[in-house]
Amino acid sequence: METEKMFELATRNKVRFPFRGVITVEDLWDLPVGSLDAIFKTLNSQLKQAKEESLLNVRTKQDEELDLQIEIVKHVVKVKLDEDTLRLQAKDKREKKQKIMEIMAAKQDESLKSKSLEELSKMIDELD
């Protein structure tokens, strides 16, 4: 199901999720991935029970809502995991950049150390 359509259905039908009572779709974004997994497990077990209890293959409104809830939780978890991956990649880039800058500073220091006293004095005079 298309993401926009999924969230539109959820908000129009005021879909609630089982977590410490009930929570809204918006509340899902504030939960850690572990809590979202717990919600998914609860919904998945409800779906399995609903399928087992019926002798007929008639889809009820509750079955459709459970499917919608599961898809929404899966989507939120995927987005959160993708964001975590991007955050870790950005952190790695920052750390590599910092390390490269430290190496560059060390090389500049080595370059200055290799200069003669006369060259260093001349450089100081130029700074004044």
Q: In words, what does this structure look like?
A:
With 128 residues, this protein is mostly helical. It has one domain. Helices cover 77% and strands 3% of the residues. The chain has 5 helices and 2 strands; from the N terminus they run H-E-E-H-H-H-H. It has helices at residues 3-12, 25-28, 33-53, 61-113, 117-127, and strands at 17-18, 22-23. It has a two-stranded antiparallel ribbon. A hairpin with a 3-residue loop joins strand 1 (17-18) and strand 2 (22-23). Helix 1 (3-12) packs across helix 4. The chain is rod-shaped and about 95 Å long. The model has no long low-confidence stretch (mean pLDDT 91).
List the topology elements:
Elements: H1 3-12, E1 17-18, E2 22-23, H2 25-28, H3 33-53, H4 61-113, H5 117-127
Antiparallel strand pairs: 1-2
